[in-house]
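[Structure tokenization] protein backbone as discrete codes

[Encoding] learned vocabulary of local backbone shapes

[Begin record] amino acids and matching fold tokens:

___
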Amino acid sequence: MWGKLHSGALVLAVLLLAMPATVSADSKEYSYIYKSTRAMGMGGAYTAVGGRVDSLFYNPAGLINIPQDKGWEVNLINVSAEYGKNTKKFLRDTKDATNTTDLNNSGSADDDKLQAMNTVLADYRGQNLHARIADFTSIGKSYDKWAFGLGGLASGRLDATTHQGFGADGFLEVSADALYGAIGGVSIAVSDSLYAGVGVKSLHRESLIHDFTARELVEHQSDLNSYIKDDLREKGDAYGADLGLIWKFAKTSKLKPAIGVSAMNVGGLHFGQAGVIPMTVNAGFSINPTIAGIRSLIMGVDYVDILNNNKEDKDQPKRLRAGAEVQIVDVMPVEVTLRAGMYEKQPTVGFDLRLLIFTISYAMYTEEVGAYAGQDKDKRQLVTLNIGW
């Protein structure tokens, strides 16, 4: 199932300019495998927080914080969709351009379509276009001294940027990928306050990095599927490991402080011609104070990529995350959770609404696609539908 999903996503990415992607050459967004809606709602500060199976993408030691009183965490369907601020309008305008008819009665619509496509590219010159869709089906459970999580990931992402050089030389720079595979991990108590986590993953990636001219998009509109699959895409497999620690010091304190550190994608994920996702070393601090009438209040702060393995820049504010989560209702069958934070110096908000086994999660955050925080902001909406318990 994942193989069909990822291959179709890669093709659909450019057919509709709406799915897979990593980062275009002009974009400075850091590489990632998966973004948790919960984590992004609270500013991406998750290294010392965890508490769900999606901890596997931030710090495997965080699996130990899966609530024991809720039993198994089972995510039968966990589908996320995300888009940037310019994407929806660009898709509509691009579709209209490729549907342009023979306006000058020359006997062919190709020149008219080319002119319409050039106009669209000019209108969106320099703007980042982003979309992502993913499913992370998973299970996990926490016990007194250990916890585990296991899941399957299928995802597709797109980032694209238009540039100068219009007419026959106009182009759209696209970098896309489709990714699928398995990931799992365990968290084990080393002592009463220290927990170590180990994660492993096996992933397949298909990537597309190409500068499309306006004429190329028009000429291949009828065979773009085969053109991408046969001539442009690159494929590769990678196996990786993740390491993490969480230290719950001062366990008698009402603040319940914790420190977390993680090394994700140890040694880097090398997909051959399909690219590399670098290793990142991250650190975080969190508190989980006990407050009467509230099931849970969590506050955290992270600094990611301490070793600057993401070579796009060395900007410190881009690596800083902070946020909070408060669970205001948790009475079966209803749960309401609110989140807020700061991600790369920009505010984030989010929430969970659960009824029985159905949960809608939302996060709004701003990704910095420039070289430093505040240079080129891309506001994004992220929604997840979950069926599970």
